[in-house]
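Table 4 source record.
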Amino acid sequence: MNPPAVIRLHPDDTVVIARSSLLPGVSVGDNTVTKARIMAGHKVAVRAHAPGDAVRRYGQIIGFATQPIAPGEHVHVHNLGMGDFDKDYAWGLDARPTDYAATPATFMGIRRPDGRVATRNYIGILTSVNCSAHVADMVADAFKKNPFTGHNPLADYPNVDGVVALTHKTGCGMTAHEPLTLLRRTLGGYARHVNFSHVVMVGLGCEVNQLGGLMTEQKLAGRLRAMDIQDMGGTRKTVEAGIAFVKEVLAESNQVRREAMPVSDLTIALQCGGSDGYSGVSANPALGVASDLIVRHGGTVILSETPETYGAEHLLTRRAVSREVGEKLVGLMRWWEDYTSKQGAEMDSNPSPGNKAGGLTTILEKSLGAMAKAGSTNLVDVIGYAEPATARGFVFMDTPGYDPVAATGQVAGGANMVCFTTGRGSVFGCKPAPSIKLATNSAMYRRMEDDMDINCGTVADGSESVAECGQRIFELMLRTASGEPTRSESFDCGAAEFAPWVLGATM
């Protein structure tokens, strides 16, 4: 039997979602038929709305009618807008003891000498400043496989996943306060990342982000090899020294083996990008099921993108383990309101043109769908950008909504894997943490199958439940953590996506 033409997510909803493109005259329930063509993933009203009436999806307010809306009409940017409404934070009301698995699952991980567990084994080349980016790239390029000759400098080191340069566009021309602190915290998190066996840090020598200050502030002395181009004698000598260091440590880096490790050693970054009207229907709630399984088996998941949680924060404060944790989240929302106001913007500026083309209208609607990635377990901690995630369970990290910047913060905070949902089709990759790509709809999955790891469009198609899809994601997480390559890794994605959050004036 064919599934219904529309998807209704909650009995209180005043709109439903088109499962596929609908022509005028199609029944959508509640004695309502479409009055115009409704694109796939877009909303159609099943209640009459006067101007100012709340419009509901997920059983929650996603905005207010800006003009009369009749049943059967398309609901989108032309007739739906933002508005203020009271939120009941209900601190910790829904927090419950976690139902931990009796027999925790395992994966094949790499135990480091300090006891932490890696999912990949890279050698990293990091930079203090944009001025040293090319030198870092030259060092990493010396160890890449030649696509024409097939020569692979790492052929004798099969346990080394690669030598990767992570460069950025800042490090100087910046104020030596919060912007510098944030950059150093990010670089320190990567320098300590468990998926790096060894790290080289390349600086120029005259930048604001001095290597000595970075290493002292982040307590990196003894962990990495630092090189200033000016002190080394220029580009050629620095590149030669960097290559020599990598060759020196390759044999040691290769001496790793995978063994069974508990899921408590996994920290998963939850990400979304190129979202659409199906994101909150299929991939995000399915990832939420997988997130709950990770937590139940002792692991950690990190939700981020504060501007894409805006308007839904009251649903997370209900799950906070304490009022203090909940208030930290609400405090972030107030900071972002002030921050965007100072930039001459507003929080509803967030949904991108692609998001809107896919059916999302307001930041409230986007946030309600995005937070589904975090499942239903307790919110145990709220942390700043790139701060270490030390609590086990569901953690929230303050980041922008721009996914490369958000993921960079999560990985700096210790995530050793990324799970990334997308409806429009993102080709994001992440090094040194493998990134699993989850498609929200089957049409995009078929179109971009080389880039997608899992099709969650089965949920929207009605051929699979959210729980079944979530179980598939969980199982892929374990295989990926055990070394199975992701689609983005097959394209060697992940170096260019390194993007620390840049705050403050460029001087």
